[in-house]
Specification:
The complex is a heterodimer of chains A (about 525) and B (about 425).
Chain A: E1 4-15, E2 18-29, E3 33-37, H1 44-52, E4 61-66, E5 69-71, H2 76-81, E6 84-87, H3 99-103, E7 110-111, E8 114-115, H4 117-130, H5 146-159, E9 164-168, H6 176-191, E10 195-199, H7 203-209, E11 212-217, E12 220-226, H8 234-242, E13 266-274, E14 282-291, E15 296-301, H9 307-314, E16 321-322, E17 326-329, E18 332-334, H10 339-344, E19 347-350, H11 354-358, H12 365-370, E20 378-379, E21 382-383, H13 385-398, H14 415-428, E22 433-437, H15 445-460, E23 464-469, H16 472-478, E24 481-486, E25 489-495, H17 501-508
Parallel strand pairs in A: 3-10, 3-11, 6-9, 9-10, 15-23, 15-24, 19-22, 22-23
Antiparallel strand pairs in A: 1-2, 1-4, 4-5, 7-8, 11-12, 13-14, 13-16, 13-17, 17-18, 20-21, 24-25
Helix pairs in contact in A: 4-5
Chain B: H1 19-36, H2 38-57, H3 65-90, H4 98-115, H5 120-144, H6 149-168, H7 178-185, H8 199-225, H9 233-255, H10 262-280, H11 282-292, H12 294-299, H13 304-330, H14 341-351, H15 363-382, H16 387-413
Helix pairs in contact in B: 1-2, 2-15, 3-10, 3-13, 3-14, 3-15, 4-5, 4-6, 4-13, 5-13, 7-13, 8-9, 10-11, 11-13, 14-15, 14-16, 15-16
The chains are: A alpha/beta (about 525), B mainly alpha (about 425).
């Protein structure tokens, strides 16, 4: 392997009151894919902001050498001129501009202040081909999927003659198929001589693309491991990230063997949902599932399988158009046409997108927790603030929500703590059935374990839990039974004993035939 | 934390109980409390400063009993509108129609009482109902048809102004019956022996102080019952003293002139009532929830359309009340009444801490914002500043208030 292209030496970055980076050293070799991993808040993103000039030279200590030269970037432009391009977790594309316009935004092919469209389109087409897109460069960004948008970001980076590409959790919003494509592209770019740094929680991704991995914990660089080496196991990386051995990633759980005769807590029969705009499309097609009290039932599927769509349509028709199907609660048919009705029947849906659909980020922990079940702390329409505060203080302690008081705005909490607030909110509503949609997405390993423990306790209390997840190990570790869906259809039902990643994946990629 | 936190009795701690260290810390306690609640207290302090400045510049004329009374009468209708507007803005909307609606309701009142001789209490109820209908229509369009509130109420602004002129046929109609006039200009009646003060007003002030103190103690005891942390006793007592003193000063000022204006009593009831609703009622919480994050509120089972509808219906009723007060105060309904009121009410809300994106703000904030504008108006009038410069200064005040808020938020955010 070649020598280092990038060296960051003893980087220290302090914000008022917090030391975000205490002492980080990072060495990236020419032409490799270098992964950085660590818990949320470990300092990964801050480190990349230091590298790309978002935090300008002078605001941190330590030195950066790129291609052997000392670099003192004053802003993003300065680092981009050297060929260092960062692609942020939240995509920075303008939705109503075309792909070509986006690729050259701020960097237009122009003659005397006017855009040279011929050159723009020619060059854009070329760049899009390089990232494996055959969409017309005049397509608007809003008309292509998130997966493709990520590729457009990379095309944009290529237009800047990138030498070092930094991707901050590039697959967080992508389904497995798009993730796969993206990872392949990173490998392809590596063959073309482009060095990449990829920030990721997903250990399987790291194994697939990375040559080496640097682990960061609490603002320190802990170690750099050779991914291809046999000693670098997932357990090894995890223990480096959390600083303790995690031999149990899931709480011990005795599989549920309840009375099969009792009616299921929730049964959904022959449910069909059509796409809200494209009425021809069935996003959920004749799906029947059930869950018993005390049971945790998983639903596995790739993006677009229709899991969230099913859950949200059942839960007060909050997504798509209902096109047939019945819901039974404890054997009796119920109506769930509005959220209020669904909640009234003891059903809770914990969204996969807590920031947009789960929480009022500008309001306090206190008021977020009480919102769905205000009536419980109110008498004749008037909220008893003290009782409300007592209730949420209780959840803050029992759920280990890390905040000084319950009057902290939820927006200031980390992802894991926000997720605990969402869970508290729905637990306080007192449901019999909880539908949890990707409850551990984007949160760190330690908080994940805490959430698993809570889910386990809920089941032990006799609640029925539906667990939707894209992470197979998590479903295998937690569920008593796992349904699989693909393209809107139910494609399998696997008991815990028979479930393996391979079996599930086979069902998840099945297209038409239905097996029950 | 002071040892008083764990005290089970709400009775004031005898001095010296918490040691001399706590005595020295009182200032720190106050400053700490202020810093934590910068948003809430910042504007109150700004209002205090503005009052103090103008009191000095006008050689004390600003705080003369007659002027204080006048200040209340002059600003009452903007404050009434600001209450409703704050709720609209918290819900994530805007209402541009309220200025025209006040004019329209004023005209409607004039037609009813002056042209048709309908008894004023009946006319009053009909006017409020008219406001409710106007608000409800706009509410349906906004909440159930999903037309943006900016557009609906912009249309309403033109529409109600036009209807006002049609109703009045370009004329000014007046005078109003006495009963209605009192709403804008009247004072509480006087009874009892002749003192140098207005007896009923004094009595009301004392009752109010007792009620506030009792309520605060009860609240503190309830917090302790739920084993919640309460603020240190010293801070609590200081707050009570400050509150009591403020009410007492205002009472004395008003009582040494003609007594409390009737509209002040109405306004006080509205502030307490709506403040309570926004803070403690399920309805109020739902307004904050839909303004803060609409999709999340929907998924939490909040009936967002119904809440939005009632927010606009309520705004209509309050606009009608403001319209009656304006008409009563001028003792005439004129086609140009209420011109620009919507902007004053909106400015009051933003000075008082509302956010463009919704979900933030308090009723008290709207009142403080309205008073900042009101004191500026009144003070500059006393100093004979021309309306040209008055506008400039009010514009700068709005910018400064919101700028401070943004700066303060950024500072605490990073």
């Amino acid at each position: 392997m070649a020598g280092p292209v990038l060296e960051m030496r003893s980087i220290v970055k302090t914000f008022p009151g917090v030391k975000a980076l205490s002492d980080v050293t990072l060495t990236v070799r020419q032409g490799e894919v270098h992964a950085i991993c660590g818990e949320n808040g470990a300092g990964k993103s801050t480190l990349m902001k230091v590298l790309s000039g978002v935090h300008p030279h002078g605001s941190y200590e330590g030195e950066i050498l790129f291609e052997g030269e000392l670099c003192e970037f004053g802003d993003i432009r300065a680092s981009e001129q050297r060929g260092i391009v960062i692609i942020h977790q939240e995509l920075a594309l303008s939705p109503y501009l075309s792909l070509a316009e986006n690729i050259f935004l701020g960097n237009e092919h122009a003659k005397g202040g006017f855009i040279d469209w011929r050159e723009t389109l020619r060059h854009a087409t070329e760049l899009l081909r390089r990232v494996g897109l055959d969409d017309h460069p005049e397509t608007r960004v809003t008309d292509i999927g998130v997966g493709k948008q990520q590729l457009v970001e990379i095309a944009k980076a290529l237009s800047k003659k990138v030498k070092l590409l930094i991707l901050d959790e590039p697959t967080a919003a992508l389904n497995d198929e798009d993730s796969g494509k993206l990872l392949d592209l990173i490998l392809e770019l590596k063959n073309q001589g482009i060095t990449s740094i990829i920030i990721s929680h997903k250990l399987n991704e790291i194994r697939k693309v990375a040559d080496s991995v640097t682990i960061i914990r609490d603002g320190h660089s802990i170690e750099t491991l050779d991914v291809k080496s046999k000693d670098t196991t997932e357990e090894r990386i995890i223990s480096g990230m959390v600083g303790r051995d995690l031999d149990h990633r899931f709480p011990e759980r005795t599989p549920y063997e309840g009375e099969k005769d009792a009616a299921p807590a929730l049964e959904i029969r022959n449910w069909t949902v059509r796409h809200p705009i494209d009425q021809e499309r069935k996003v959920v097609d004749d799906v029947s599932i059930d869950v018993r009290r005390g049971e945790i039932v998983g639903i596995a599927g790739l993006m677009g399988a229709g899991r969230t769509e099913l859950a949200m349509n059942v839960f007060g028709r909050t997504y798509g158009r209902y096109d047939g199907g019945t819901v039974l609660k404890d054997g009796t048919e119920i109506r769930t046409k509005s959220v209020a009705e669904a909640v009234g029947h003891g059903i809770a849906y914990v969204t996969e997108d807590r920031k947009h659909y789960g929480l009022n980020l500008i309001d306090t922990i206190n008021r977020n927790i009480s919102l769905t079940a205000l009536a419980k702390v109110a008498r004749r329409g008037i909220v008893d603030e003290h009782e409300e505060r007592q209730v949420s203080e209780g959840y803050r302690k029992s759920m280990n929500i890390k905040a000084p008081t319950v009057f902290e705005p939820v927006g200031k909490l980390s992802g894991g703590n926000q997720q605990k607030v969402v869970l508290s909110k729905w637990i306080f509503a007192g449901p019999d059935v909880l539908i949890l949609d990707e409850p551990t997405r984007g949160i760190d390993v330690g908080a994940k374990y805490e959430i698993y423990t809570v889910i386990d306790q809920l089941a032990a209390q006799g609640k029925a839990v539906v667990f939707i997840s894209s992470e197979l190990p998590e479903l295998l570790g937690m569920c008593d039974r796992i349904y699989t869906m693909a393209a809107g259809r139910l494609t399998g039902e696997v008991p815990r004993a028979e479930a393996t990643q391979e079996v599930l994946m086979r069902h998840m990629t099945k297209d038409k035939e239905v097996t029950r | 934390m002071s040892t008083d936190v764990t005290a089970t009795s709400p009775a004031p701690a005898p001095p010296g109980k918490s040691g001399s260290a706590a005595d020295g810390n009182l200032l720190q306690l106050v400053l700490g409390g202020l810093r934590r609640n910068m948003r809430q207290y910042g504007m109150l302090i700004a209002l205090g400063l503005i009052v103090a400045l103008f009191a000095v510049w006008t050689n004390g004329d600003l705080l003369l009993p007659r002027n204080v009374s006048n200040l209340v009468l002059q600003n009452s209708y903007i404050l009434i509108l600001a209450i409703g507007m704050m709720m609209v803005i918290i819900a994530g909307h805007i209402d541009l129609s309220v200025g025209s609606l006040t004019a329209f309701v004023g005209a409607f009142a004039a037609v009813l009482t002056v042209n048709h001789g309908i008894a004023w209490p009946i006319a009053l109820i009909m006017c409020l109902a008219m406001g409710a209908v106007a608000g409800a229509v706009q509410g349906v369009l906004i909440a159930y048809l999903g037309i943006p509130s900016f557009i609906v109420t912009l249309a309403g602004m033109l529409l109600f102004r036009g209807l006002t002129e049609i109703l009045l046929q370009g004329q000014t109609i007046g005078p109003f019956p006495n009963g209605l006039q009192n709403l804008g200009n009247g004072f509480l009646p006087e009874v009892g022996p002749h003192t140098n003060y207005h007896n009923i007003t004094l009595l009301l002030g004392i009752v109010l102080i007792v009620a506030v103190v009792w309520q605060e103690f009860r609240d503190r005891r309830r917090q302790q019952e739920f084993a919640l942390e309460v603020p240190p006793t010293r801070l609590f007592l200081l707050k009570l003293t400050a509150l009591g003193a403020a009410i007492l000063v205002l009472t004395m000022l008003l009582a040494s002139y003609k007594g409390a204006p009737i509209i002040l009593i109405v306004l006080g009831a509205l502030v307490v009532g709506y403040g309570y609703v926004m803070r403690n009622a399920v309805f109020g919480r739902h307004i904050y929830a839909i303004g803060g994050n609409l999709p999340a509120a929907k998924l939490s089972g909040v009936k967002d359309k119904k809440v939005t509808f009632y927010v606009f219906l309520n705004m209509g009723v309050l606009a009608a009340l403001a319209g009656l007060v304006v008409a009563a105060r001028l003792n005439a309904a004129s086609p140009k009444a209420g011109d620009g009121f919507e902007l004053e009410a909106i400015a009051s809300s933003f000075i008082g801490g509302a956010s463009m994106s919704g979900g933030v703000g308090t009723i008290l904030g709207a009142i403080i914002g309205g008073l900042v504008l009101g004191v500026l108006n009144n003070g500059m009038n006393l100093l004979s500043v021309g309306t040209d410069w008055q506008q400039v200064i009010k514009g700068l005040a709005l910018l400064a208030a919101v700028g401070f808020d943004v700066w303060n938020k950024r500072k605490s955010g990073s």
